[in-house]
Amino acid sequence: MSKNSFKELAKEDQKHFDEKDRKIKENINHSIGFLHFIGDMIELFVPRVVQIFLGISSAKGPKVNSDEDEGSRLSDVQDNPRYPNTLE
Amino acid sequence: MNCYLFALLTKNITLTISDEEAIDRYLQTQNQSYFDLLYSRYSSKIFGKCISILKDEEKAEDATQEIFVKILLNLSKFSGKSKFSTWIYSITYNFCIDSIRKRKKDKSILVEDMTNEHDTADDGIEDQFLLELNVKRLKIILDKIPITDKAILLMKYQDEMSIREISEVLVKSESAIKMKIKRAKQKFKKVYKENYRE
User: Fold this and answer.
1) Smallest CA–CA separation between A56 and chain B, in Å?
2) Would you say the ipTM is above 0.90?
3) Which option is the CATH number for B2-104: 3.40.50.620, 1.10.1740.10, 1.20.1250.20, 3.40.50.300?
4) Apex B40 CA angle, B44 and B33, nearest 5
5) Residues 121-180 of B with CB under 8 A from A
6) What's this model's pTM, rounded to 2 decimal places?
7) pLDDT tens by residue, A23-47
8) B172 contact partners, CB below 8 Å, separation of at least 6
């Protein structure tokens, strides 16, 4: 087998890896755990936030556009006094 | 006993599967053991490359960690067109070169592409000269040449990547890569002569 000093250099560079291996692996696992946590949070809360946002926007919509509803609500107010338990 | 046999069997299966299979299975099952398998196969090599380029154990440690997180986040983007090793080495080299650029703003990297573009003569440097060099001397000279030249020589002689694979890593044409290798060898020889008058 012919000599390859580059491969020998690679072996030399990897010599200290065993001492560091455990620490590197632990740190990677921590990073992965953190990313999973962030992913779970997004999965859990983003759909709710979107739902709330849609709920708010759909609730506002009819109020602005329908005049009929506004009229009927006014008549309701006239029929039913604002403070039903007070004497007039 | 059954659990022990099952664990042993699973371990043997995971040891024999290819990188590509391990990636597929990891993406399908999110089972950590498949990622651990890839880690055990490549972590020492990546650490070695980081230490070779960054020249600092602490930084190499941090870089290895970040590179693996990057690999994990981009695993679904691995298309399988190139070998998995080529793909992760490309992430490693680009990460290390970028971090050195940020750290030092190495002028040699920035101006390198502008020099000797039209030089097309044969370099006349035998591969044998590089491959049979004393390891200590090789290390010293590699540390003295620009980082991109060092990276390209490592890709060619240490990782034994083909010209096509290197061109994929550095996103350059194959002819540009041939030229870069030639220039890197010339710079290596020049620095060698300056240090060891032979």
Assistant:
1) 35
2) no
3) 1.10.1740.10
4) 155
5) 130-135, 138-139, 142, 153-154, 157-158
6) 0.72
7) 999 999 999 889 889 988 998 888 8
8) B180
